[in-house]
């Protein structure tokens, strides 16, 4: 049996083999995954304009070599030989005499080989980060806005610029015009040619010379008339007509809600930031337009920018329902559910006024969950759960497909928890 291999040598936009690049990325997947996971901790939540630089240690790109072992039979020619005759058996040189090439990592000048470094693209970065994940309840809503336009063919017009002339359609019109204008004359020409042919077939004595001359004169006049018709006229010209058509853009909004009371340390906020970053990047894989709304809260809620959201400190107690109520109001005012795909992520250390937790459950179940595609709650604390967690558990029972909650204790839990929340569901 003969195996056949087809090698795709088509080039990508940068004149490099896309197939070879894909094979290379698969080979060093472990190093790339490690670099991608480390990069998550360094980036801003909206910093999505580049890929990532990957370094592979020199020893991991070492290529295996094939050498000859001891023994075996081979034939060689030794020029200038004075010691051996034909048929003599020569023992191979023994190894370990210091004649090898060595690893090549160091020299007496102190120079060595650097790690191999290359860059993956933005799409490759996201592919490695979110492989085996899916976006729950991905719903394509009505178009939010028509911000992009493309020009598409929309028929023909009899006016336009020369570079848009449609030659085929113009020649077709010209041919049809000539047929229409000369149809009667062409039928008469055919008739006259038949009469003349019949008359010429008669004996010369029986021919009607006068009638024959009239027919020939009329035939010449009609043929001249047909030839005077222009091959193409301005009336025949047709131009391609292009129409500006809006391109739909699927829109999504991501609500980030976080407790910023005195119990939330900067370390806790940093862990929340990494989770929000992962969710934002994940949404970018599925939607062309993403807006982010930051809502922080202690005893009252406030919509802020990213810098204030993650790095400001507040003191006092915690009333979570204030943030949920503000989110509900913003959705009603700015993000109608029939036009936006709405996602929300909430981070907290679990502290809340006990009397407020039932209100949070009611707000979520009745006002927010019917409007959103997915709501994820992470509780960043090593302590036992409090009233807020148990109130949210009741919401999860009511909305098992669109509400998820997990606990995070240290930074190493962030990505596993994210994968748990967004893991690909089996069919």
From TrEMBL:
Residues 95-105 have a biased composition (Gly residues). Residues 61-111 are annotated as: Disordered. Signal peptide: none annotated. Belongs to the UPF0229 family. NCBIfam families: PRK05325.1-2 (NF003707), PRK05325.1-3 (NF003708). This is UPF0229 protein GCM10007392_00240.
